[in-house]
């Protein structure tokens, strides 16, 4: 068993986690203001924004991947802009994967945060405004600490969902070892070359990690509910 | 002096109505806002707090809070607000709830001592009783040293004994800090005990404004005892009818004639009155 484990190349896993970590961090920063806006607004643009945010859940990853690829490639204005101004290529490298993952996992961060914010007693937020605090301070000190279960769900599920992505990554990143070859792509390739043993080990590791992540979310949320935070 | 002259269209439970209030309030006054639910009391309070939009003018001393549509933000009004549901911050201890408003430990400790909460200062709100929570909320509202203290039915969720205790604390704080206080309340004894002026709203308009005695004592003509209550039941006992009426927290029985029975409907509001020449009054 130990021998088998020693022969395993862990790089794809590390890459998956690095990608998921970065994506989660970036999405958190983008999603808190977005989810806050959606939770507080009564504006007519709200359903449009909500629909756009939720699109990645229903679209086939290949569709999303295709559009991101087209939009970011060096033939598109966006791709040209980034390459000329910042010297960054956005496809078939790690940076491109992060950008694509941010689109792909957006709803998994925004939706729990939004429903968390919506569940907050409005009077509590108003009490904070009356206490002289602005929106930013109210979000950081009052809103976020009081939606810990939603916060936890958003972060962990976004992370886990990004680790588990496949279609978009393959379309935008290809399979460059150490750059874009994440765990899910590696498994696909093992199966393709009929290396079932490696595919088994990789898949089993993914199952165990995913299960542990979800288990920890449910345990945490169960406890948080009990103490009523 | 607080000058209020505001207008706002409301879509309440009773359909569309116009909240139209023109008021002058002296500094240091304790005002009770009364009226049926849906009459615009809470909305008026929220407009004063800057939580709701309206048009008109609000002037507090020399400060302009509302001019036309231009409103000063809630954050800058330096008011205290006590919500019916306490609205404490569950993630902060009692002391931190107070310090969140103003980092003034001395004031916080003073307030907590005045309301006998000092022992509980490190507890989280969820471990407190309703009465304790509302006292914390009251202390938190005072942390701004507010010129204007607004309270939206602060005691309606509490039992009668706790109400009396908190009424005394509210009065003490009101006097100690010299605030102008506006409180929404339905409870006549509470209004009588605390307020020096009662304003009654109905469909967005002021229909009564005066001292609690003038507004609340509902005697007319030569009647001396007059109570409003709900008719719960009419029971026929032998040859007489007995009406059971709920007045305040008590049930009373009144004899009614067959004629009167016909004009009464169970569930309706009734007034029970009598001439009282030699009433007895005893301490309990």
Overview of this structure, please?
The complex is a heterodimer of chains A (229) and B (284). Chain A is mainly α and 229 residues long. Chain A is 79% helix and 0% strand. By secondary structure, chain B is an alpha/beta fold. Chain B has 8 helices and 15 strands. In chain B, the strands form 3 sheets. Chain B has a 6-stranded mixed β-sheet with strand order 7-8-9-3-10-11. Chain B has a 5-stranded antiparallel β-sheet with strand order 2-1-4-5-6, with no helix packed on it. Chain B has a 4-stranded antiparallel β-sheet with strand order 14-13-12-15. In chain B, strand 5 (63-68) and strand 6 form a beta hairpin. In chain B, helix 4 (130-142) packs parallel to helix 5 (160-177). Classes of the chains: A mainly alpha (229), B alpha/beta (284). The interface between A and B is medium-sized, with 19 and 24 residues.
Overall 3D shape of chain B:
globular
CATH architecture heading of chain A:
Orthogonal Bundle
Largest sheet of chain A: none
State the secondary-structure class of chain B: alpha/beta
SSE order of chain A, one letter for each helix or strand: HHHHHHHHHHHH
Oligomeric category: heterodimer
CATH C-level of the largest domain in chain B: Alpha Beta
Q: Judging from the principal axes of the Cα atoms, what is the shape of chain A? A: globular
- Figure out the total of helices of chain B: 8
What is the domain total for the residues of chain B?
2
Number of strands of chain B: 15
Q: Radius of gyration of chain B, Cα only, in angstroms?
A: 22 Å
**Share of residues in helices of chain B:** 25-40%
Number of DSSP E strands of chain A: 0
Poorly predicted runs of chain A: none
- The CATH superfamily of chain A turns out to be MetI-like
- CATH-assigned homologous superfamily of the largest domain in chain B: P-loop containing nucleotide triphosphate hydrolases
Runs of chain B with pLDDT <50, length 5+? none
Distance between the termini of chain B: 42 Å
The SSE order of chain B reads: EEEHEEEEHHHEHEHEEHEEEHE
